[in-house]
Amino acid sequence: METSSLSEDRGRSLRNYLVVTGGYWAFTVTDGAVRMLVVLYFHLLGYSPFEVAMLFLFYELFGVVTNLVGGWLGARIGLNLIMHIGMGMQVVALAMLTVPDAWLSVPYVMAAQALSGIAKDLNKMSAKASVKTLVADGSESRLFKWVALLTGSKNALKGGGFFVGAALLELVGFRGALAILAGLLLLVLLVTVILLPSGVGKMKSKPKFTQVFSRIPAINWLSAARFFLFGSRDVWFVVGLPVFLYEILGWSFTQVGGFLALWVIGYGLVQASAPRLLRKRHHSQGPSGDTARLWAFILALFPAGIALGMQQGWPVDLVLIAGLILFGVVFAINSAVHSYLILAYSDHEKVAMNVGFYYMANAGGRLTGTVLSGWLYQEYGLVGCLWCSSGFLIAATLLSNALPCSR
Questions:
Q1: Where do the H-state alpha helices sit in 248-288?
Q2: Counting beta carbons within 10 angstroms of the beta carbon of residue 253, is it exposed (0 to 12), middle (13 to 18) or buried (19 or more)?
Q3: Distance (Å, rounded) from C-alpha 236 to C-alpha 238?
Q4: pLDDT tens digits for range 185-241
Q5: Is the per-residue pLDDT at 101 higher than 70?
Q6: Is the distance from CB of 293 to CB of 229 less than 8 angstroms?
């Protein structure tokens, strides 16, 4: 009887994991698509790189607040409800951008992006935290595999979203693309509401808001390192890189979207494969603090190498493409290690609040990187963005020194 009950529990856990993952996938496609739509369409309307970056200011800023508050709310009302609220808000945010061009002022678009940012972080926080609740204590290898698969597949699909956004922009226009994305996400929302049980991740006692700030040193240091890790990517990837490819190298919208899509897809596949890539080193146990420190230092070498190659006058296409591929591989391993560690450092009862706090730092890094991406590109070009990226990664390496070397 016990074996049968255990098998049923595992079956339910796997089913719920697959439903959560499917909902997260659908949301991710729309998130990647709308980001590419906004970057390319508003650049086409004559917005400067810095003005395009400012359109995402509230998207990232509200993400900081959302992760902090969202983790607390998830612990009080359940992670599934948080995920469904996020999906509903994204549908509204997409619909807001379908208005005529005359209405698309900077404040209006920033407001729509703020709603989208809140939606994205509610969805991400709930999906990531749900994985912890679906894996039994002591199953470190399984936890690493599940979170790596969820995160890696999400990033692969976000890359697909970049391509979908760029392709839809050319095929059906800005507003047609948004209408299609909103309709599909609404359908997925209805399906997940029917299939998922309520109350996942809900704490038995009602936590106070002050409890969202972690008292575990390892989580605080990991969150600080995460800030600089994701800032290092977005400082050149969000605005500088797509504008450089379109404006300097003369690529079309579809070429820009397709290339960035392939990059993110490849990055996601590597991230999903991270447990196998690191298996010889960690065996049945997951990564530890020394893993995060080592890979952050290795990653810092690549943006610096790309910047040096461009400054030396080497072929820009070759340096940028080769550098991006290598950066993507190593960044994916870094991200997978971090995503595992935050769940490993958390217990089941407080996982929603710990993950919310951690992704607050993640959103803060993205916010800083996004703003700097537009300003640095406008003032110093892509090379300036790359040097800043390398500096951020050195900071992440130093902060990772405080992480436990073994658990």
A1: 253-272, 274-277, 279-282
A2: buried
A3: 6
A4: 999 888 888 877 665 545 555 555 555 555 678 888 998 999 999 999 999 887 888
A5: yes
A6: no
Are 405 and 281 a contacting pair, CB within 8 Å? no
Place of tokens 């997940």: 192
Q: Does domain 2-196+216-400 have CATH number 1.20.1250.20?
A: yes
Whether 363 contacts 60, CB under 8 Å: yes
CA-CA distance, 174 to 298, in Å (whole number)?
Answer: 40
- How far, in Å, CA of 74 to CA of 136, rounded? 20
Give the end-to-end CA distance of the chain in Å, rounded to a whole number. Answer: 34
Burial class (CB in 10 A: 0-12, 13-18, 19+), 8: exposed
| CB-based contacts of 132, cutoff 8 Å, min separation 6 | 143, 343, 346, 348, 351, 355
Residues 278 and 113: their CA atoms lie apart, in Å, by 37
Contact by Cβ (8 Å): 198, 78: yes
Closest CA to 376 of 355, 364, 390, 362: 390
Q: What is the DSSP letter of 313?
A: T
Q: What is the pTM of this model?
A: 0.69
Look up residue 338 and give its two tokens. Answer: 């971090």
Closest among 252, 240, 232, 274 to 375, alpha carbons compared: 240
- Select the highest-mean-pLDDT range: 10-24, 33-47, 310-324: 310-324
Computed from CA positions of residues 53, 361, 206, 136, in that sequence, does the dihedral angle turn out positive or negative?
positive
One-letter amino acid of 86: G
351-400 and 289-311 are packed helices; what angle lies between their axes, rounded to 10 degrees? 60
CB neighbour burial string for 274-300, b if at least 16 within 10 angstroms, e if fewer: bbeebeeebeeebbbbebbbbbbeebb
Rg value, the chain, Cα:
20
Domain ranges of the chain: 2-196+216-400
Nearest to 163 by CA among 60, 7, 37: 37
C-alpha neighbours within 13 Å on the C-beta side of residue 390: 15
pLDDT score, position 28: 84
**C-alpha span between 39 and 27 (Å, rounded):** 19
Interatomic CA distance for residues 44 and 23, integer angstroms: 32
